[in-house]
Design a protein that fits this description.
10-stranded mixed sheet; alpha/beta; TIM Barrel; 12 strands; single chain; 11 helices; about 20% strand; two-stranded antiparallel ribbon; binds iron/sulfur cluster
Length: about 350
């Protein structure tokens, strides 16, 4: 929903200012999914709003819930046809939403189901922020009073290839008139579009940055993530050093552990060496996650091997956390979003 347009509508129709507050309360607090449900508004205004504005910029095609974890996945159809997916999860006490920033993705990472779809188009800021509004509506219906606390740009697409709309979406989502989600609770995960790191440091300094690393060897990383041919580890390091100089905040290095491909002692040593070559290496934190079998090639490692990986990094004075993969039974885990019906 474009709230600016609603504000203009209220103004141009000379409606009293309290109508805007009633709309805000109905949509962003109570989470109503239809204008007619906002009972504080007179019927003629409900009808006028219904005629002029859609609350969400897409239609729900399918909603799935995990039997294993508190995870829900929605397949959404954009108005011009492409489908995207978004995920709601509760890994601990708080609800997090994983949003998509593109329909499909042009980068074709070997381990990722989205990459296999190819690229359809960039999402608008409204389509991105509406994914969170969609889950807000869901929570008010199913878990009255609970709210989305965190947002991660880890769904379909590479957010930094759609930087302008992603930045706008962050501003919308953190706006106190909208869902009021603090920027420190928003994370952007990138495959390494390094020439945008400086923009992030200067324009969105409070937003968390996560780099999908997955391999510290240039040749192997290029096989896994073809974008490494353009932004290789040397370029990423240079731009990340600059980012840390401008914005001394922890950066997360996401490392999907693929058994037999990136978890040998030599891989771990190379990763440790790369991280410890940074001037501000203490600001880098590795998140290890066992890969999901989204593609037939990727093998999931035993969880003990992932913990051993973390221990080996800690011995090199590198902070490392093992993350649990959630929602794999509904293909809602990292790398599994494929917008299948
Ligand atoms: S991992 Fe991310 S960047 Fe790579 S293909 Fe999948 S969606 Fe695109």
């Amino acid at each position: 929903m474009d709230f600016i347009k609603i504000k203009d509508f209220v103004k141009t129709n000379n409606l009293p200012a309290y109508r805007l507050n009633q709309i805000r309360q109905g949509i962003f607090v109570d989470g109503f999914a239809a204008w007619r449900d906002i009972k504080t508004l007179p019927k003629n205004l409900q009808e006028a709003l219904n005629k002029n504005f859609k609350i969400l910029s897409f239609d729900l095609v399918k909603l799935q819930s995990s039997k294993l974890d508190k995870v829900y996945k929605a397949l959404l159809k954009l108005y011009d046809g492409p489908k995207i997916e978004t995920v709601l999860m509760k890994p601990g006490k708080f609800w997090s939403v994983c949003v998509s920033s593109q329909a499909g993705c042009p980068l074709g990472c070997a381990f990722c189901a989205t990459g296999k779809l190819g690229f359809k188009r960039n999402l608008t800021a409204e389509e991105i922020s509406d994914q969170v509004l969609f889950w807000h509506q869901f929570l008010q219906k199913e878990f009255k009073g609970e709210r989305v606390s965190n947002i991660v740009f880890m769904g379909m697409g590479e957010p930094l290839l759609n930087y302008v709309e992603v930045k706008k979406a962050v501003e919308i989502l953190s706006n106190k008139d909208y869902l009021n989600i603090g920027k420190r609770h928003i994370s952007i995960s990138t495959s390494g579009i390094a020439d945008k790191f400086e923009n992030l440091a200067k324009e969105l300094p409070q937003v968390n940055l996560a780099l999908s690393l997955h391999n510290a060897d240039n040749k192997e990383r290029s096989t896994l993530m073809p974008i490494n041919r353009k932004y290789n580890l040397d370029i990423i390091k240079q731009e990340l050093e600059n980012y840390l100089k401008l914005n001394a905040r922890e950066v997360f290095l996401e490392y999907t552990v693929i058994d037999g491909e990136n978890n040998s002692p030599a891989h771990i040593r190379k990763l440790g060496k790369w991280i410890n070559s940074f001037k501000d290496n203490y600001l880098l934190h590795v998140n290890l996650i066992a890969c999901n079998p989204a593609t037939s090639k990727a093998k999931t490692p035993p969880i003990a091997a992932v913990y051993a990986f973390a221990e080996a990094l800690e011995k090199m004075n590198i902070k490392a956390t093992v993350r649990k993969s959630l929602g794999s039974d509904i293909s809602a885990a990292c790398g599994q979003l494929a917008a299948k019906n």
